Amino acid sequence: MGELKDCIAKICDEIRKGNYPNEASVSQGVVMPILHSLGWPVFDTQTVFPEYSVGGRRVDYALCHKGKPAVFIEVKQVGHSEGADRQLFEYAFHAGVPMAVLTDGQEWHFYLPAEQGDYEERRFYKLDLLERKIEESAERLDRYLSYKNVCSQRHLESARSDYKNIARDREVKKAIPEAWAKILDEKDSLLIDLIAEKVESLCGYRPGPDMVADFISGLMKTPVPPNPYPKPLPEPTPPVRDKTQMLKGDGNIGFELRGKKFEARNARDVFIQVMEKLSDEGQHFCERFASRPKHGTKRRYIAKEALINSYFVIASRAFAARQSLSC
C-alpha cells in the first residue's frame, strides 16, 4: 500500500501543475502507474489489454482474468469526463463486463452497469484524488481495482455491497416524507400522546386528544417538503489576502495586487495587466494557468486565442522595454 500512496501523491502533484494535457498523458502518467502499484502486470497486454475491441469500437483498457475482461476503464482528458459514461455503459453491456471505470486522472467513477437505475444511480463510488486524503484514495482503489481482488472477485463483492447501501439510503430518504404524511393523516395515537406529554411538561396542563388532533390536521394544510434533508448552503468563502481585487465606487477601473493599486482603461486592460504582472513573477504562469485541469463546466476560463493575445502583448511590452534600455 505504501507504493500506491507514493504513486497517488506524485500524481496529485502533477495534476495540480497541469502536466496531463491530453488523454494519452493521463493513460501513461496516471492510469498505468496506478495499475502497476495495484499489482497488475501492465506489460502483459493479454491481462492489461489496451484498446480492447467491443462491437467495432474500442475501450481504453480491459483488465482481464483468465482471458476474459473483468473491468473496463475508459480514460478522458482531465476535466472532460462529463457525458462519457453513456459510451462506457454501451461497451460494458455489449461485452458483459460487470464493472466499469471512467476516469480523467483526477476523478474516478466506479459503475456496476448491470444494476438498476440511470447512469448516476449505478455509480457506486466517486473518487476525487485531489479532494480525498491519500490514504482513503489508496484504500478505495485497492478495494475495487487491485489485481488480487479482481482475480478473487472480491472487488465485485465490495462494489455490490456498497451499491446496496447507497440504494437503500436513497429509498429510505424517498420514503421519509411519505411516512410523515401518513402519520399526520392517520393521527397516530402515539404521536398524539407524545405531543400531549410535551405540552403538559411545558405548561403544566395536558391537552385533550381532540385538541392535538386538530393541531395535526392544521399541519396537513402545509405541504410537506419533498426532501426533509436539504443540502446545506455552502459557507461564504472568507476573503483571501494578497489576491487581485477590482476597484469600485468612484467610477475608476483598476485592480489591486500585492497591496499596490493599478489603473486601467477597461476590463480587457485589467486582464492584460494582471496577466503581465503575474507572468513577470513566474516565467511559465500563462502556460500553467491555461492548462489547469478544472475550468468551467462549459468552456475554459481562457481560450487559446486569448492566451496567445496575452503572450503577444506581454512579449511586445518586454521587447519595447529592452529597446528603450539599449538606447
Written description of the protein model:
This protein is of the alpha+beta class and 327 residues long. It contains 11 helices and 9 strands. The chain is flat, with a radius of gyration of 29 Å. The protein starts with a helix and ends with a helix.
Short synopsis of the structure:
With 327 residues, the chain is an alpha+beta fold. The chain has 11 helices and 9 strands.
**Computed Rg:** 29 Å
CATH topology descriptor of the largest domain: tt1808, chain A
CATH class of the largest domain: Alpha Beta
Question: H/E series, N to C?
Answer: HHEEEHEEEHHHHHEEEHHH
Question: Which SSEs are present, and which pair or pack?
Answer:
Blueprint: H1 2-16, H2 23-37, E1 48-54, E2 57-65, E3 68-75, H3 85-95, E4 99-103, E5 107-111, E6 123-128, H4 134-145, H5 147-152, H6 154-186, H7 189-203, H8 209-219, E7 245-246, E8 254-257, E9 260-263, H9 267-281, H10 285-290, H11 304-326
Parallel strand pairs: 3-4
Antiparallel strand pairs: 1-2, 2-3, 4-5, 5-6, 7-8, 8-9
Attribute tags:
3 domains, tt1808, chain A, 11 helices, six-stranded mixed β-sheet, alpha+beta, single chain, three-stranded antiparallel β-sheet, 327 residues
